[in-house]
Design brief:
The radius of gyration is 20 Å and the shape is globular. The longest helix has 20 residues, at 150-169. The model has no long low-confidence stretch (mean pLDDT 96). The chain has 15 helices and 6 strands. The protein is of the alpha/beta class. Helix 1 (4-14) packs across helix 6 and helix 6 (150-169) packs across helix 10. A 6-stranded parallel beta sheet has the order 3-2-1-4-5-6, with helices on both faces. The chain folds into 2 domains: 4-59 and 339-349, 5,6-Dimethylbenzimidazole Phosphoribosyltransferase, Chain: A, domain 1, CATH 1.10.1610; 65-332, 3-Layer(aba) Sandwich (Rossmann fold).
Length: 354
C-alpha cells in the first residue's frame, strides 16, 4: 500500500530535471577557449562543467550556500561501538548552534551558513537557531531490531526535503551535507555492506578512533544487525529503515530536495556518502547533482564512493564529519566559477592557440 509519505517523496523526485547536456557542452567549449591548455585545470574544469549542466547557465550564481547539519542518536551505541558516549551528540549540537565547532569555523571562512537540524537527538534541545524537526528520540538498537519504521524513515527523508525547500526560499543555491550522531559510522557501514556487497571487514572503520578490540566488536555488531533485520538490498528505504539513522535519512532528503530544486549538493565524508548511496538508489537522477568533496580515513569510503559513481576532489586525511570536508570544497567551487567568469579567452587576450 502506497502511503501519503511515499506519494510526497515520489512527487519531489519527479521534479528533478535531467542534467543539461547542451549547456554542459557549451561550458566545456568555453573552458577550452580560455588561455590555458584544454583540461589543464583538471577537476576545476570538471566542476564548472557540472555546475553548468545542473543550472543551465555557463556561470551560475552560487554565492548563497549552506551546510545542513542533521543530528540524531543511535540505539546501537548500547553495543559499545563508539569511543565517545551518546551524551556527546546533544553537546555537539549546542556547540554548532553557538558557532564553536570546526564546521562553523570553516563555514564562516567559506561564507556559508550552518543550518542545524534536530531530527533524532535523544534529548530535549532548545536554541533560537535550532531547527527542531524530531522524528525519533534516537533510533532503536539495530543489533536487536529495526532502527526505525518505514514510516519514520520516510518522515525523516521528507524533513530533509522540507529544510532544503525553506533554504531555497531564503535564496540558498548551493548545499553541503553535514551530520552529528554518535554511532553513525556503524549505521553507515551496515548500509554500505548491504547496498554495495562489501564485507563488514571492509566497510567498518575506526569512527571516532576505536582500538582493535572495539573494531572487531563493531564488525560483529554490523553482521548481527544485518542477520537479525534481513534488509532487502533491492529496496533502499527498507535498508535505511532497518540499519540507518534519522540524520542519515534526513541527508537523503537533503540530497533529493537539492536536486529537485536544481541546486548542486556537496557530499561530505563516510556518513554523508552512505546517505548519497541511498539517495542514488531511491532516485538515480540525483547523481549529476552530487559533488564528492573529499576522501575520508574511513577504510570503506573510496569503495563506497566508487559504487555511487563519484570521485572525491580532496584527500586531506580527515575523519571529523560535521560537513567539514564539504564546506572546504566550497572554495574549489568558488574557484571554478571565478575562472570561468574572469579568465581571458585566447581571442580576447590576443594569444595564439597554435
Amino acid at each position: 500500500m502506497i502511503s501519503n509519505l511515499d506519494t510526497k517523496l515520489a512527487e519531489t523526485i519527479e521534479r528533478i530535471k535531467p542534467f543539461d547536456e547542451e549547456t554542459a557542452a557549451l561550458a566545456m567549449k568555453y573552458s577550452d577557449g580560455l588561455t590555458k591548455p584544454p583540461g589543464s585545470l583538471g577537476k576545476l574544469e570538471s566542476i564548472s562543467i557540472q555546475l553548468a549542466g545542473i543550472s543551465g547557465q555557463l556561470w551560475p550564481d552560487l554565492s548563497r550556500k549552506a551546510v545542513i547539519v542533521m543530528a540524531g542518536d543511535h540505539g546501537v551505541c548500547e553495543e559499545g561501538v563508539s569511543a565517545f558516549p551518546q551524551a556527546v551528540t546533544p553537546q555537539m549540537v549546542m556547540n554548532f548552534l553557538n558557532g564553536g565547532a570546526a564546521v562553523n569555523v570553516l563555514a564562516r571562512q567559506a561564507g556559508a551558513e550552518v543550518v542545524c537540524v534536530d531530527i533524532g537527538v535523544n534529548a530535549d534541545l532548545e536554541h533560537e537557531l535550532l531547527i527542531s524537526r524530531k522524528v525519533v528520540r534516537g533510533t532503536a538498537n539495530m543489533a536487536k531490531q529495526p532502527a526505525m519504521t518505514r514510516e519514520e524513515t520516510l518522515q525523516a527523508i521528507l524533513v530533509g526535503i522540507e529544510v532544503v525547500n525553506e533554504q531555497v526560499q531564503r535564496g540558498c543555491q548551493l548545499f553541503a551535507t553535514g551530520e552529528m550522531g554518535i554511532g553513525n559510522t556503524t549505521a553507515s557501514a551496515a548500509l554500505t555492506t548491504v547496498l554495495t556487497g562489501l564485507a563488514p571487514e571492509e566497510s567498518v572503520g575506526r569512527g571516532t578512533g576505536i582500538n582493535d578490540a572495539s573494531w572487531l566488536n563493531k564488525v560483529a555488531v554490523v553482521k548481527r544487525a544485518i542477520a537479525i533485520n534481513n534488509p532487502d538490498a533491492n529496496d533502499a528505504i527498507d535498508v535505511l529503515a532497518k540499519l540507518g539513522g534519522a540524520e542519515i535519512a534526513g541527508l537523503v532528503g537533503v540530497i533529493i530536495g537539492a536536486a529537485a530544486s536544481g541546486c548542486p549538493v556537496v557530499i561530505d565524508g563516510y556518513i554523508s556518502s552512505a546517505a548519497a548511496l541511498v539517495a542514488s538508489r531511491i532516485a538515480p537522477q540525483t547523481l549529476p547533482y552530487m559533488i564528492a568533496s573529499h576522501l575520508s580515513q574511513e577504510q570503506g569510503h573510496l569503495k563506497l564512493l566508487e559504487s555511487i559513481g563519484l570521485l572525491p576532489i580532496m584527500q586531506l586525511e580527515m575523519r571529523l564529519g560535521e560537513g567539514t570536508g564539504a564546506v572546504l570544497c566550497f572554495h574549489f567551487i568558488d574557484a571554478a566559477l571565478h575562472l570561468m567568469q574572469e579568465m581571458a579567452t585566447f581571442e580576447s587576450a590576443g594569444v595564439s592557440k597554435d
